[in-house]
Design a protein that fits this description.
By secondary structure, the protein is α/β, with parallel strands linked by helices. It has two domains: about 1-20 and about 275-385, no CATH class; about 25-270, Spore Coat Polysaccharide Biosynthesis Protein SpsA, Chain A. The chain is about 50% helix and about 15% strand. It has helices at about 1-25, 65-75, 95-105, 120-130, 150-160, 180-185, 185-195, 195-200, 220-225, 240-250, 270-285, 290-315, 325-340, 355-370, and strands at about 50-60, 80-90, 110, 135-140, 145, 165-170, 170-175, 215-220, 255, 260-265, 375-380, 380-385. A seven-stranded mixed sheet has the order 3-2-1-4-8-6-9, sandwiched between helices. Helix 2 links the parallel strand 1 and strand 2. The longest helix is centred in the C-terminal third of the chain and has 28 residues, at about 290-315. The radius of gyration is 21 Å and the shape is globular. The termini are far apart. Keywords: Membrane, Transmembrane, Transmembrane helix. This is Glycosyltransferase.
Length: about 375
């Protein structure tokens, strides 16, 4: 068994080195002195962004919309013209009225049209927002997002540097319940540990993409060229589908670290975490049961098995047999800490890695099962298959 854990330790050490390198490749939006900024070629430089459209789809977001709009309205814009549009997507909790009150006349609130056949809810809402927008750049925000005061100015600077295409990133995740702490930070973990960040913008291959629907900044011309949300109207994981569409249209997708400027609390309890991830995991890996099993086998081998072996060695008194499993476990924890640091998560979250993988496995199994049953998935009062 020592040989097995020596091999696992070696694999994890390589993964740690990759994660450290990969995290360093992620440009920081609104970077200050000494921080990695976007590399801009002279040919990419453009004139100042004249108008930015901040677009917020909102369905039953009465608890979030006022806080979101307050943070947006408090942002400095460096003199650029900014319009803010909220689409009330058939809410039943007074979201539209709260948005209008919070906007104080500076926010346009639209009433969403009925959901057509063949469309999923968020994509339909975003398409209506884009239709109403007049900006050179479109910034799609989720209602649970909170912006720092310099966020819009940082986004405008990134847009001016990029010239065209799509800019996205993972907001700093605020967590409260235990399932949030265990599962939500794994979003950044999968990117830092598996996706070479330079290939997101440096390769035209649509397989090398990452996106978070809570923050998507896209040039209007690029949005139209890729077909916008119309082109991905039935995609369950809409943010990734839009990023792939942008690449297929010959445009560039840029993944940036936005944690200093953007935060959010995606879920507020264990049930929301379970339902949200259950809806997305299986669709996110292309609905491939073989790939799902392969990923879960890899995660269990690397992150759960060493922890189980250490626990067994301690309980059985065979501490000598736990040395190599402990080395693998600590290396895996170091990998998790690298991704948590990139996502600005508390230091101690990395210790939860084995439990996080166990929870993720259970949700993944439920996600696979949901694709096989007529029940499908439910999210915000709508049912998906």
């Amino acid at each position: 068994m020592n040989l097995l854990f020596q091999i696992l330790s070696g694999i994890l050490l390589l993964q740690l080195l990759f994660a450290l390198w990969n995290a360093a490749q992620l440009p920081v939006i609104g970077a200050g002195p000494g921080r990695r900024e976007v590399k801009v070629q002279p040919a990419q430089a453009t004139s100042r962004v004249r108008r930015l459209s901040v677009l917020i789809p909102a369905r039953n977001e009465a608890d979030n919309i006022a806080g979101c709009l307050s943070s947006v309205l408090a942002c400095s814009t460096g003199g650029a013209e900014v319009e803010i549009i909220v689409l009330d997507d058939s809410s039943t909790d007074g979201t539209g009225a709260m948005a209008a009150a919070a906007g104080g006349g500076r926010v346009r609130v639209l009433r969403g049209r009925a959901l057509p056949e063949g469309w999923l809810g968020k994509s339909h809402a975003c398409a209506q927002l884009a239709e109403a927008a007049s900006g050179d750049w479109l910034l799609f925000l989720d209602a649970d997002v909170r912006l720092q005061q310099g966020a819009l100015q940082a986004a405008l600077s990134a847009a001016e540097a990029a010239g065209s295409g799509m800019i996205t990133g993972f907001p700093r995740q605020i967590t409260g319940s235990w399932l949030e702490r265990l599962v939500v930070p794994l979003m950044v973990f999968t990117i830092i540990c598996h996706l070479p960040v330079p290939l997101v913008s440096g390769s035209g291959d649509p397989r090398f993409v990452a996106a978070h629907g809570g923050f998507i900044l896209i040039r209007r011309s690029s949005y139209d060229r890729c077909g916008g949300h119309q082109a991905i109207r039935s995609a369950l994981v809409d943010d990734m589908a839009l990023a792939r569409a942008v690449k297929r249209a010959g445009e560039t997708v840029r993944l940036m670290n936005i944690t200093e400027q953007v935060s959010m609390r995606m879920y507020h309890n264990a049930k929301q975490v379970w339902n949200g991830y259950r809806k997305n995991i299986y669709a996110g890996i292309g609905r491939s049961p073989i790939l799902l099993l392969a990923v879960l086998f890899l995660y269990w081998s690397l992150y759960v098995l060493p922890a189980a072996a250490v626990l067994y060695g301690c309980l059985s008194g065979q501490l000598g047999a736990a040395i190599w499993p402990a080395a693998a476990l600590l290396t895996g924890i170091a990998v998790k800490r690298t991704s948590d640091a990139a996502g600005k998560q508390p230091f101690w979250y990395c210790i939860l890695l084995p439990a996080a993988m166990l929870c993720l496995s259970l949700i993944a199994a439920a996600s696979w099962n949901g694709s096989r049953t007529r029940g499908g998935y439910e999210w915000k009062g709508r049912r998906y298959e």
